[in-house]
Amino acid sequence: MTLFSSAGPEWIAPGACILRDFASPYERLLWQDLQAIVRQAPWRHMQTPGGQAIAVSMSNCGRLGWVSDRGGYRYQMEDPLSGIPWPVMPASFESLAIAAAAQAGFVQFRPDACLLNRYEAGTKLGLHQDKDEQDFSQPIVSVSLGLPATFLFGGLKRSDPVLRTELYHGDVVVWGGPDRLRYHGILPLKPGWHPLTGKLRINLTFRVAG
Ligand SMILES: [Mn+2]
């Protein structure tokens, strides 16, 4: 019996799987640590390079944080709102991400960045690739908390067929290796209520960024 239990990976591609309910055992601690992060680095709507507000509210923890503004997409060590370093990645976050990656076969994974995404009813995230990181040999680890959402998992080209699968509270998706640069996204969140997060879906995305 390990710290994080799971029925085993549900493979959706050779290098991509869903670990159902993997994060649920630690939901209280994750939620408590998340509150501390957003007290220090509050939720905000970043701007695209074109000047539009991004619908998903974001924050970061860890050595590097993903930011978007008129200057483009990038990772940086300081929160642009405060000018000080992003909050330290809590041990609860880090150990969950490392355990999930290992379960998916990525035993070297040590994240230096965690992007926090907050979805309200109607919020979506269009198909995109994660390619602002230095090293594509390391996977993406994505933790879902709160309301369920429909995850879109496409191919390496935008026009490739897209798999749709529902992600529930506690589910963790890991994609790497040949699938690291697959397009992905989230359909508009349906309204609802979750005992932990209320009207929200929270996503934690762990990466090796720099
Ligand atoms: Mn992404």
Unreliable spans: none
Number of helices: 2
- Distinct bound molecules: manganese (II) ion
Average of per-residue pLDDT values = 96
Explain this structure:
- There is one protein chain.
- It is globular and about 40 Å long.
- Strand 4 and strand 5 form a beta hairpin.
- The protein has one domain (10-42, 89-207): Alpha-ketoglutarate-dependent dioxygenase AlkB-like (Jelly Rolls, Sandwich), CATH 2.60.120.
- The longest helix has 14 residues, at 27-40.
- It has 210 residues and is α+β, with helices and mostly antiparallel strands.
- The protein has 2 helices and 13 strands.
- Manganese (II) ion (MN) binds next to loops.
Secondary-structure topology with pairs:
Layout: E1 10-13, E2 16-19, H1 27-40, E3 57-61, E4 65-69, E5 72-76, H2 91-103, E6 113-119, E7 125-128, E8 140-146, E9 149-153, E10 163-167, E11 172-175, E12 184-186, E13 201-207
The site of manganese (II) ion has 3 residues, from loops.
Protein name: DNA-N1-methyladenine dioxygenase
Organism: Methylobacillus rhizosphaerae
Binding site for Fe cation: 128, 130, 184
In a few lines, what is going on in this structure?
With 210 residues, the chain is an alpha+beta fold.
Notable features of this structure?
13% helix, alpha+beta, Jelly Rolls, 13 strands, 4-stranded antiparallel β-sheet, binds manganese (II) ion, 210 residues
